[in-house]
Design goal:
- With 1300 residues, the chain is mainly β.
- It is built from three helices and 123 strands.
- It has a five-stranded mixed sheet, with no helix packed on it. A five-stranded antiparallel sheet has the order 13-12-14-17-16, with no helix packed on it. Strands 20-21-27-26-23 form a five-stranded mixed sheet, with no helix packed on it.
- The model is unreliable at 1-40 (pLDDT under 50).
Length: 1300
């Protein structure tokens, strides 16, 4: 029967799924009832929307939805058979691709939102929690499953899958610091500044930094910044160079994904660097005394072409640094990225930096440094020193051709074009061509040459490369024979002829050594001995001998130089002489230059042999001599002595004791300053008393008197100090050390000062507390008050002390009992306490006595026992002074018991109940009781025992007898209704599919029943369970109500607005540039389109720069950059931003039209121009005409005269309303043609002017015109009348007819 039942169930399922698998059923029966079969025609469609979404870190989202349809032959719903065979969300399984479980997690549906899973199932809207910045892929898979009788899965087939990308946006914070100073975003960075970037990334998906120039993530080759520190969520970059770079901070998996990427720009200061040589050896320096004039000199080597060379700067990679390089004069130097190349001689400023464009499109420097580039005036082209007669040579320089004037030293040898520098050799010999340039700042400021000299030798078929030269002994030079053919070595000969020296003697020894090259044309000359010799070279050309002579000066070079002596000392105001020594002696050029390292200390004047040094002030200086030949250097150290004027000591008399042992004297030699000999000697007048060492340290030998003498080495000035050394006191002994005294008593203390031989045995006496004891100068002590004091005896010599402790007794002056009148019951025991005053009394012992022991007995410690009814006195007596104190004791019959009319009562808040006590025995004398509530906030009780219930809770009313303090209690239980219910939220937004929770707070806290009943006005929109957990089901409004369960009728409610959430906000535009005072309305696009609430709240991050109203209109207040944020109002806090850049408005301060008054013919046009100040502004202006019937003007200032007359044209600025005007005269003649009979008259007029008019007739015989324009017909015919006004000509054709 069990198998038959299963078969019937399966048959019903198959009927609903279109096919009956009878064969399978038979097979199922044959297999003993175990049904195992494959999936039939199941077909499932699954897609996720949206395909991409974001969830903020720390929040949840239910935006991802599975769209599921189709059939699942294996799905069976026992509770609702109509769902059988239909694809069900129950079979959906969700997974996250993020293996490290760091980016997103699924919220466990059963955890209340505080537990997370890697997988969830059975839902179309999983709740996703944003954990860490990054990207994750969420996969939904539909599983078709078959289960066995035991519930085990025997078949699981994935029919469909779909994925969606989820991003947790990166949240980046950037901090810029210079040392400990935090910089603003707009501040320019400098080398060494640190940029700290932190983000919400994690170890498995680290913060990744790339720049415009370095995408490796290591930031090692950017050039502007480099990696300084990094961990998974923090990177510190260090600024290492100038320029700008774009920093991109993203997650490791965020490449190309906008939510996972954050970019910002770093701009670092651009600076040229001084004193750093480039590869050509050129560097930036500054003029002496003018550090602001920085410059770099390009190549000054003649005939060397200028090439591009680096300008030393902090720009590491000029090509990638976005640094702009500009030159003020491209005719002087041109610039390319990071390099400069000379073009023509001169000086130009080269700037490098970063630029910015303002809202008006004007470019300005954001950071800039500048340096003057000096292009020297030098020779260019190829070097030529020899020409043949008839040759032409084009010389060139680095200057612009028009700046150079050419001249020659000898027109008979060389001629030159003064403008072009074209040289022509016209005769044999040597001449110099001069290229002279204007003496501008290249010469006057930077000391560059303004004149170049080309020394050229012209030969007529034969010559030498030079006709005069100098060679040092041991050095060699080459002289070349200039020939026009290719002779053999035998055809070229030479002779050497020594010339007479200064004494008129011709040396007989060789002055030079000559070596001739193999081809005979090159002669290597080596200097052997000093003197003058002639080298004559001859060439035999077909029997014709041509010769040329070169004068050779052989010189003795300077090998080394020294100064004798190498150091010298002189007094201030005096002079000293030193001698310069050459090695070898007697060089040919013995010229030298002398200098002093400190001319305030010493100056020097000298020649090639000696120098005189003059001392100006005390101190040290170095005298330097430099030879003109070889630049050899020697120095001499100079010490200028300042005479000593006196000496003082730090003490003149010292009184001391042998116990001190030593004393340091310090000598001050005058005057102060450099060059003073401060050496002194020390001596003692009696070394048996004290000695002194070379440093002025005095050592005591024995008591006595001596004088220490200090004497200067220079000038023998003396200072003295007298020393008096005594025998010190070592100890003091007193005849009393500890004594007790009474007030008014005296005591003499005697002091024994040891040793007896001490020089000064005088002592002083002092009391530590004069309120207790006083002591006179002889040691007599008098007790003046109670307490303790110390008598101090102190020696005047050395301060040796001894002490005696004195204690002055305090008597008791009064006795105070803890009570002086008391009533007790019979048999009661109590204690009396006696306080003896003052507190510091020495003997406080007392005795106790009862006057009637039948009433009370008292013991020695003050313990009193009531023995019988009655009254008596207890007496307390001080044993020292006999002072007494009394206490009157009354003994009564005691109370023995108390009962109440009830020990338990329940009351509602506000009710009252009276508690009635019964006292035993009935004849007790004192039946008074007191009432006390254990919690007066629950219930109070008055003096009559009336209880009032105040709030819910329990308390105990305790009733206590005055006598014996017997107690009885009544328990009060107060019941209280709920008075208020307060919900955690009164209005709440929820996204469709989201969950939440309301928390109800019940008032008061003492309500008896605090249970709450929850309900929803529409469960299809939002449902609520009895824990206050909310579930948003569909879009709409629902009211959630919390009702008190105690029947009080107290309720509270919260309006729930379930919405399709806003997932994105786009502000249009996303950046805006305004002038101060302007405004513009922003637009906003809210996504998705089906978002329920698209309203946004506008906010400005800095209202001192710009404010925004509720409609999104932005008003610019002051210059700066500010972020305007639009935030969704549906509770999701989605934001869109717009960066607003506010720049100050620069208004036009003055306008001036180029003409004040214009005369024009009617129907003509003319362009007016306007001069604007300041030239750079962001204001505008408009043109107006005072009479458009006469003159019209367009927006560009083009005027058109449309009718005769006079009108004004205005131009007015929009900002400050500055204006300028021009008077326009539109001229027209009153008639353009008239017909007159002979002798008729007609007066013409020019409309549009009051100026003088010049009238003329083209044919006075036909008609004439007067100066007032009156035309008179004279003779039949045609003539033209012209009117000239301000150089404008108007005409009228006049036809004159004969008289009819």
């Amino acid at each position: 029967m069990k198998n038959v039942k299963k078969i019937r169930q399966l048959t019903m399922r198959l009927k609903m799924q279109w096919k009956i698998l009878i064969g399978v059923l038979v097979a199922g029966v044959a297999c003993g009832g175990v049904l195992i079969f494959a999936n039939a025609d199941s077909s499932v469609s699954l897609s996720l929307t949206p395909a991409q979404s974001s969830v903020i870190q720390g929040s949840t989202s239910t935006v991802i939805h599975a769209n599921l349809s189709g059939t699942d032959d294996e799905f069976y719903d026992a509770s609702n058979p109509s769902n059988n065979g239909i694809a069900s969300p129950v079979r959906l399984e969700w997974t996250i691709s993020d293996e490290d479980y760091d980016v997103v997690k699924f919220v466990n549906p059963s955890s209340g939102g505080d537990a997370y899973l890697q997988t969830v199932s059975g839902t179309t809207n999983p709740t996703v929690y944003g954990n860490r910045a990054g990207a994750a892929t969420i996969t939904a898979a539909y599983h078709s499953k078959k289960f066995s009788d035991t519930g085990a899965v025997v078949y699981d087939n994935v029919l469909a899958t779909s994925t969606a990308a989820v991003y947790v946006p990166i949240n980046v914070n950037v901090e810029r610091k210079r040392g400990n100073t935090v910089l603003e975003e707009a501040d320019l960075l400098k080398e060494g500044d640190l940029i700290t970037i932190t983000a919400n990334t994690c170890e498995s998906n680290k913060l990744f930094i790339e720049t415009s120039n370095d995408s490796t993530g290591e930031v090692s080759s950017d050039g502007i910044v480099e990696m300084y520190y990094r961990d998974s969520s923090k990177v510190v970059l260090k600024v290492i160079g100038g320029g700008s770079t774009v920093i991109t901070a993203r997650t490791a998996d965020g490449s190309g994904i906008n939510p996972l990427t954050y970019t910002f720009t770093v701009r670092a200061e651009v600076k040229f660097k001084d004193s750093i040589s480039n590869s050509q050896g050129h560097f930036i320096t500054h003029l002496p005394g003018d550090a602001s004039n920085r410059y770099m000199v390009l190549s000054d080597k003649d005939y060397e072409a200028f090439t591009y060379e680096d300008i030393p700067s902090n720009v590491v990679n000029p090509v990638k640094s976005n640094v702009i390089y500009k030159t003020d004069n491209s005719n002087v130097a041109s610039v390319a990225v990071g390099t400069v190349c000379g073009v023509h001689a001169g000086v130009t400023k080269v700037s490098a930096g970063l630029t910015t464009i303002d809202v008006g499109g004007n470019e300005s420097w954001f950071t800039r440094d500048a340096v003057n580039v000096v292009v020297p005036f030098k020779k260019m082209g190829n070097e030529v020193s020899n020409m043949n007669v008839g040759d032409e040579l084009q010389l060139s320089t680095s200057a612009i051709e028009s700046e150079v004037t050419w001249s020659t030293s000898d027109n008979k040898i060389l001629q030159v074009d003064s403008a072009t520098g074209l040289v022509k050799a016209v005769g044999a010999g040597t001449a110099t061509i001069y290229a002279t340039r204007v003496q501008d700042e290249l010469y006057t400021v930077y000391n560059m040459p303004y004149q170049l000299a080309y020394k050229i030798t012209v030969i007529d078929g034969f010559g030498l490369s030079t006709v005069s030269t100098t060679v040092n002994i041991g050095s060699s030079i080459d002289i070349k024979a200039l020939v026009t053919n290719q002779p053999s070595k035998s055809q070229i000969t030479y002779t050497v002829t020594n010339q007479a020296n200064e004494a008129g003697v011709i040396p007989t020894y060789d002055l030079i050594e000559v070596k001739q090259s193999d081809d005979g044309t090159v002669f290597t000359i080596t200097g052997v001995a000093s003197g003058v010799t002639h080298l004559t070279v001859s060439q035999n050309i077909n029997g014709v001998i041509k010769s040329e002579t070169c004068v050779i000066y052989v010189t003795t070079p300077v090998g080394d130089v020294s100064i004798n002596p190498s150091s010298i000392s002189i007094d201030r105001g005096s002079t000293g002489t030193v001698q310069v020594l050459f090695n070898p002696a007697g060089p040919t050029n013995s010229n030298v230059l002398w200098s002093s390292s400190d001319t305030t200390v010493a100056t020097v004047t000298g020649d090639s042999y000696t120098a005189t040094i003059k001392g100006l002030s005390g101190g040290n200086a170095t005298i330097t001599v430099i030879t003109e030949d070889g630049l050899k250097v020697a120095t001499c150290d100079v010490y200028v002595r300042e005479p000593v004027t006196g000496v003082t000591l730090n003490a003149t008399t010292v009184e001391s004791t042998m116990a001190i042992g030593k004393y340091q004297l310090v000598a001050t030699v005058k005057p102060s300053g450099d060059g003073v000999n401060r050496n002194v000697t020390w001596s003692s007048s009696d070394e048996s008393v004290a000695t002194v060492d070379e440093n002025g340290l005095v050592t005591y030998i024995k008591p006595g008197y001596c004088t220490i003498v200090c004497k200067t080495e220079d000038g023998a000035f003396i200072a003295t100090c007298n020393f008096i050394i005594s025998i010190p006191v070592e100890t003091i002994k007193l005849d009393y050390k500890d004594e007790i005294m009474s007030i008014g008593q005296t005591l003499r203390i005697t002091a024994e000062v040891l040793p007896i031989t001490a020089t000064n045995r005088t002592v002083s006496w002092e009391s530590s507390n004069t309120n207790v004891c006083i002591v006179d100068s002889n040691g007599l002590v008098e007790a003046v008050g109670t307490g303790s004091a110390t008598i101090l005896c102190k020696s005047l010599d050395g301060g040796v002390t001894a002490m005696c402790n004195i204690y002055v007794k305090q008597p008791v002056t009064s006795i105070v009992l803890n009570t002086t009148d008391i009533t007790v019951r019979k048999g009661q025991v109590f204690w009396l306490n006696a306080t003896c005053l003052p507190e510091n009394a020495d003997n406080k012992l007392v005795t106790w006595e009862s006057r009637d022991e039948n009433v009370c007995k008292v013991e020695s410690d003050g313990k009193v026992t009531a023995t019988g009814a009655g009254t008596t006195s207890i007496i307390c007596t001080n044993v020292d002074t006999g002072l007494t104190a009394y206490c009157i004791v009354t003994v009564t019959q005691p109370v023995t018991g108390i009962t109440l009319n009830s020990d338990y009562q329940e009351l509602w808040v506000g009710a009252k109940y009276a508690i009635i006590p019964s006292i035993e025995p009935i004849d007790a004398e004192n039946k008074k009781v007191t009432y006390l509530s254990s919690d007066t906030s629950v219930a109070t009780v008055d003096e009559n025992g009336v209880v009032t219930a105040l709030k819910g809770g329990n308390c105990v009313i305790e009733v206590t007898t005055d006598e014996c303090h017997l107690t009885a209690a009544c328990t009060i239980v107060v019941k209280e209704y709920v008075s208020t219910i307060t919900l955690s939220e009164n209005n709440k937004f929820m996204n469709v599919g989201a969950t939440g929770k309301l928390i109800a707070t019940v008032g008061t806290d003492t309500a008896t029943n605090k249970n709450i009943v929850w309900s929803s006005s529409d469960n299809s929109i939002c449902s609520v369970d009895q824990e206050g957990n909310l579930s948003a089901e569909s879009v709409g409004n629902a009211v959630i109500t919390a009702t008190a369960a105690d029947g009080s009728g107290v309720t509270a409610s919260c309006i729930i607005r379930v919405v399709n959430p806003v997932t994105g906000i786009e502000v249009v535009p996303d950046s805006l540039r305004l002038f101060v005072g302007d405004s513009q309305k922003l637009g906003v696009n809210v996504y998705p389109d089906n978002a329920t609430i698209k309203d946004v709240v506008w906010k400005s991050a800095n209202e001192s720069i710009a404010v925004v109203d509720e409609d999104g209109e932005v008003f610019a207040i002051s210059s700066g950059k500010v972020k305007i944020t639009a935030t969704s109002q549906d509770g999701n806090d989605i934001k869109g931003i717009c960066w607003v850049y506010v720049t100050p408005r620069v208004n036009i301060s003055s306008l001036r039209i180029n003409s004040k008054e214009i005369y024009m013919l009617t129907g003509r046009t003319r362009q007016l121009s306007v001069i604007v100040r300041p030239a750079v502004n962001n204001d505008s202006y408009e043109w107006y005409s005072s009479d458009t019937g006469i003159v019209t003007v367009d927006g560009n200032g083009v005027i058109t005269t449309v009718g005769p007359g006079e009108a004004e044209v205005y131009v007015i600025s929009d900002g400050a309303g500055v204006e300028s005007s021009c008077i326009v005269h539109s001229l027209a003649i009153s008639r353009s043609n008239i017909t007159l009979e002979q002798y008729d008259r007609y007066t013409l007029d020019v409309i549009g002017t009051d100026s003088n008019i010049t009238w003329r007739s083209s044919n006075p015989r036909v008609c004439t015109v007067s100066s007032s324009g009156e035309v008179i017909g004279r003779k039949a015919g045609i003539a033209t009348i012209t009117a000239v006004v301000n150089n404008k000509t108007l005409s009228c054709t006049v036809r004159v007819t004969s008289i009819r």
